[in-house]
């Protein structure tokens, strides 16, 4: 399905047609809004079932000229639509293209005039995921997409013989850029789904995995669960090995000069000789155990998941504990940073400069700066502020929304990312030769919670810490204009029941845990995992229904819609503070 989608989008762009992409799981209302707002003239759908779901609404509220069906039989379309609307299969479109070329080459009287495509012409309109409101149409030019194709090799030095595994939809900006890069370098691409990911990793043994952080979190949780269900001895050995490997890699990063440290948001410019020497000594002591762990434990994990060269993470915040875990077991993760508005990659860690805690240096021809959110004054490297980015990857603007474009991009071409972060000063990472220019992203500026005490809290740090608990499936920290923080939590019922039985809170044959018991267990986990934060989570709201794409509480790119969660549970959240 993704292959046909990719080929159709490439064909459209090659002929100068602007394509507008969206996932088939989007609501009918959202698809209709995007279709009409983008002034589209036709639909390309992946199956008759997809079109039948939206047919009545689109037929009455749009003026479609024709329909292209990528898969399935035209006879499966709703009868009324099938009769009145011109429908073409994907192969018919291919045949029409071949016929037109034959006609133009043999008929000297017939001439086809094609307008030259300019690099600044719009290639695609990609609508944002809508985490903060209605989706906006991002106008990406041919220049934007070509910049990605030409410069992603610095991040992923792949070529013929390498195999990529991807599970992102083709309409995702991250997936689209990666696909174009892969195709242009003759690399093998394998598509999978959430359901088939585990089996396909083992079957295809990919050199690279292209995925969002949630996928790596899922793999991490699966490995942890497999360890926890092992016999007592196996579990003890595995956990001991992992702790040793984590400590070994921490020391290794210090003596190799790849450890990013801050003190009160200011970078530590130089490690002392004593720190460097101590890290070296401890690493030498721990290495034999780490090497044994690689042979006895980690090799089995590698055979199950492949990823022999690197996992590329983008499209969201990669939790630090997940990042460190995969480093410890010898699976390289390269974290990147991008936006739909930047086609999308702005920065990424490199194979030879993979500093955990950062999103790496900018890719070629991309500039970053940090500014004061209030005054827009440019801040020096090492100072936390609002991140702005400039370069050939920045969008042309938002379609039919000049005011939003002006708010996002200033007269000098700097795009306001809406993210808080800082640029690593030169020589701030120990003795690393890659010390300057790396970017650290610490969260969305718009996600900042301002308590009634005047204190500002970045909720994502607490949420990432809390998600380390196996008892918490999902969490959204709340507390805007309140005296203290709270949280909306989806508990992991299976793990809670298991923990309750192990602690003899409930009978060994029972699976029912009372709300009070669940609350007590969750509070213990929150205190355990967020103890290092200066902010603690107070009242919590337990909800049974997970946040998902289907119920509108997650975007199609699997990010939690914080504002939607808060809006849906507004009354219950208010009750927490009474």
From TrEMBL:
Gene Ontology terms for molecular function: long-chain fatty acid [acyl-carrier-protein] ligase activity
Pfam families (UniProt xref): AMP-binding (PF00501), AMP-binding_C_3 (PF23562)
GO cellular component: chloroplast
Organism: Senna tora
AMP-dependent synthetase/ligase domain span: 9-399
Taxonomic superkingdom: Eukaryota
Matches recorded under PANTHER family: ACYL-ACTIVATING ENZYME 16, CHLOROPLASTIC-RELATED
Ranges in a coiled coil: none
A biological-process GO annotation: fatty acid elongation
Name of the molecule in the record: Putative acyl-activating enzyme 16, chloroplastic isoform X2
């Amino acid at each position: 399905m993704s292959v046909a989608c990719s080929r159709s989008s490439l064909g459209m762009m090659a002929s100068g047609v602007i394509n507008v992409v969206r996932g088939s799981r989007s609501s009918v209302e959202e698809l209709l809004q995007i279709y009409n707002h983008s002034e589209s003239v036709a639909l390309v759908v992946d199956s008759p079932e997809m079109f039948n779901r939206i047919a009545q609404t689109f037929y009455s509220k749009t003026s479609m000229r024709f329909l292209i069906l990528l898969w399935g039989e035209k006879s499966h379309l709703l009868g009324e639509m099938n009769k009145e609307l011109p429908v073409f299969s994907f192969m018919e479109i291919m045949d029409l293209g071949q016929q037109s070329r034959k006609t133009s080459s043999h008929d000297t009287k017939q001439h086809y005039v094609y307008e030259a495509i300019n690099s600044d012409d719009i290639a695609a309109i990609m609508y944002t995921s809508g985490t903060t409101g209605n989706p906006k149409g991002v106008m990406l030019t041919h220049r934007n997409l070509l910049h990605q194709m030409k410069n992603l090799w610095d991040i992923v030095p792949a070529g013929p013989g390498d195999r990529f595994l991807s599970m992102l939809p083709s309409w995702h900006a991250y997936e689209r850029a990666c696909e174009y890069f892969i195709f242009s370098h003759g690399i093998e691409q394998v598509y999978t789904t959430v359901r088939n990911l585990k089996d396909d990793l083992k079957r295809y043994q990919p050199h690279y995995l292209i995925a969002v952080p949630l996928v790596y979190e899922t793999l991490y949780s699966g490995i942890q669960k497999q360890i926890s269900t092992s016999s007592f001895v196996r579990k003890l050995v595995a956990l001991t090995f992992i702790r040793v490997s984590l400590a070994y890699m921490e020391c290794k990063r210090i003596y190799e000069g790849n450890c990013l440290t801050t003190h009160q948001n200011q970078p530590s410019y130089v490690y002392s000789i004593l720190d460097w020497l101590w890290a070296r000594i401890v690493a030498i002591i721990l290495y034999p155990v780490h090497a044994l762990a690689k042979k006895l434990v980690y090799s089995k994990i590698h055979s199950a998941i492949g990823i022999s060269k690197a996992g590329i993470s983008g499209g969201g915040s990669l939790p630090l504990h997940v990042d460190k875990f995969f480093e410890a077991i010898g699976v390289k993760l390269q974290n990147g940073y991008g936006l739909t508005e930047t086609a999308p990659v702005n920065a990424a860690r490199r194979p030879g400069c993979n500093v955990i805690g950062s999103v790496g240096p900018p890719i070629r021809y991309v500039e970053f700066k940090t500014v004061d959110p209030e005054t827009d004054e440019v801040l020096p490297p090492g100072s936390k502020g609002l991140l702005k980015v400039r370069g050939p990857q920045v969008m042309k603007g938002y379609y039919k929304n000049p005011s939003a474009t002006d708010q996002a991009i200033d007269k000098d071409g700097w795009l306001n990312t809406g993210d808080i972060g800082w640029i690593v000063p030169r020589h701030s990472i120990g003795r690393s030769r890659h010390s300057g220019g790396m970017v650290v992203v610490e969260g969305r500026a718009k996600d900042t919670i301002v308590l009634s005490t005047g204190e500002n809290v970045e909720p994502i740090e607490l949420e990432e810490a809390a998600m380390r608990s196996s008892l918490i499936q999902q969490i959204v920290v709340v507390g805007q204009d309140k005296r203290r923080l709270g949280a909306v939590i989806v508990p992991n019922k299976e793990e809670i029941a298991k923990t309750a039985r192990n602690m003899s809170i409930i009978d060994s044959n029972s699976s029912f845990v009372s709300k009070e018991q669940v609350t007590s267990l969750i509070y213990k986990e929150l205190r355990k995992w967020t103890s290092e934060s200066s902010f603690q989570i107070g009242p919590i709201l337990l909800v049974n229904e997970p946040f998902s794409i289907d119920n509108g509480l997650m975007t199609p790119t699997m990010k939690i819609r914080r504002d939607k969660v808060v809006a849906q549970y507004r009354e219950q959240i208010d009750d927490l503070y009474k």
